[in-house]
Amino acid sequence: MIDHKNKLNSDKFIYKDNDILIEVLDNISDAVMINNADAVIVYVNKAYEKILGIPAHKAIGTKLREVEPGAIAIKVMDTGVASHNIVDYIRTANINAVGFSFPIFDSSNKIKGSVSIFNDVTEIKKLKDELNISKEVTKYYQLELEKKHLSQSFSEYICSNYKTKEMLFLASKVAKTDSTVLIRGESGVGKEVLARAIYNESKRNKMPFIKVNCASIPENLLESELFGYDDGAFTGAKKGGKLGKFELAQGGTIFLDEIGDMTFNMQAKILRVLQEKEIERVGGTKTIHLDVRVIAATNRNLESMIEEGTFRSDLYYRLNVVPLNIPPLRERKDDVLIIARNILEKFNKDSAEKITLSTDVIRVLQNYDWPGNIRELQNVLEHANIVRVSNQIEVSDLSKYLLVKNYEEYNELEIKHFKSYNFKENIEVIEKELISEALNRNNNNKSKAIRELGISRRAFYEKLSKYGFEL
Question: Of 83, 139, 268, 279, which shows the fewest CB atoms inside 10 Å?
Fold first, then answer.
């Protein structure tokens, strides 16, 4: 009986019956390419001709380094390391191939060539790429669907604005974690509303939500308010001491509103709390470990404050783990009407009426820039709801300052509502309204009102006296 294995492995058979080896190679379905030590192609099989569309007589003798310098076969010969199942783009044939390539060594262990066996996977790769694209598209639509159907916790944020929806979607994701959150936005955009929504959506929503307005508490009291104090800590201290806001929030969430108004000294103490997760009461020596999630908010430009040296950069980076930027209402005019109607719905529930907005009122609301944001819009509609004489809010029910933005529109919509057509009298009415609203929006801070009105301090005080305002 003939031992075919030994016969095939004998040098005599390989050199004597080379035709049989060629026949075997020509009948396999994978392309075969053999290169010599100079990376010149010395052999290709029939599958190679079919897959690459290149006849053997044109392929043999080709210098691979010149036509396919990035080929896997070149890398294999340069490194002496075999390559398996790597997708290789063959530029000359415009196909993607996968297979394996290995170096051939002579008796002195020098590379004398390489063998590459591969097949065309262009269609397979195309299908794979299409599948990946399909998966990414599906993922994108899934995310978009999630954005449209935010949880009930975020239902107070009625909006259609894409930028706002993006922010809310990020907020809904971070709500489920314990990460520190920094909410940024102008006064009146709803920073506290967002903080409460994050809390309600979090795993801590059965534990306390404690709010601290850092701007409203005097500096000398803020530390004891936040960290508490022990018995006899200072003159006037409550007997037995007092728990601070951080301790009250244990297991839950503390909301540090207007953190940009905190003094540099207090910032250092807050930083320590965030880093060490512990506090000491004022006048105390016992360390109290904390399990509290921190949400901070500010309407200040913290980056500018860092440059000015009024806000600590290390605290900024501790707070700014997940920043949520709430766009001002002037940048989301597409939301003004739906927010206004949502506010009216609440009025309707309270009064059992169906209050609507006239077409002219809608135009005024959409054209105004809302420096006081949603809070200002709510105040405007609350005022109009009180003074209205019918179930429809008219321009005459609005505060006059809203109409000054565009005098032509004011003239078109509102002139018919004045008691007379006397120009001087009507200008005085508008001036009085503007001053009153500016003082209300700025909590009677006259310096801020002057800046907002854009008049001199002298002119401002003259008008206060003229219209009977408190000096």
Answer: 139
The burial class, CB within 10 Å (0-12 / 13-18 / 19+), for 384 is: buried
Q: What is the DSSP letter of 225?
A: H
Rounded-to-integer distance, Cα 346 and Cα 362, Å: 18
Locate the DSSP E strands across 281-403. Answer: 287-289, 293-298, 322-325, 356-357, 392-393
**Which CATH number among 3.30.450.20, 3.90.930.12, 1.20.58.100, 3.40.630.30 corresponds to the domain 4-124?**
3.30.450.20
User: If you search the block for the tokens 């297991």, which residue do you land on?
Assistant: 251
* pLDDT tens-place string over residues 328-373: 999 988 889 888 988 888 888 877 788 888 888 888 888 888 888 9
- Report the distance separating Cα 291 and Cα 248, nearest Å: 11
Most confident segment among 25-29, 242-246, 293-297: 293-297
What CATH code is assigned to 154-327? 3.40.50.300
Q: Rounded to 5 degrees, what angle do the CA atoms 257, 259, 265 make?
A: 140
CA-based nearest residue to 194, from 216, 171, 214: 171
Nearest one of 337, 354, 336 to 346, comparing CA atoms = 354
Distance, CA of 146 to chain centre = 15
Q: How confident is the model over 417-464, as pLDDT tens digits?
A: 555 556 666 677 777 878 887 887 777 788 888 877 878 888 888 888
